[in-house]
Amino acid sequence: MNNLLAISFSAILFFTGCGVDSSQDTEGTTDSVNSQTQNEDKMNEDTKEESNTGSSANDSESNAEADAATLDKGRAQVILEDYEKAFKMVINNTNDQQKLNEYSTKQELQEHFEHFMSTDRANSFVNTYFRVEDDGLYVKAMGGPTFLLEDEAFSFEKVSNQQYQVIQERYNQQMGPTNVRNIFTLVKQDGIWIVEQVEQEEISGENENTSPDNNESNIESKTLNKAQATRVLEEYETAFKKVVNYTNDEGIQQEYTTKEGLQTHFEHFVAPDIAASLVDTYFRVENGNVYVEAKGGPLYLNENNPYQFSETANGMYKITQEIDNQLRGHIQVEFVLSTRNTVWVIEEINTTQLD
Question: Which of the 8 DSSP states describes residue 6?
Answer without folding.
Answer: P
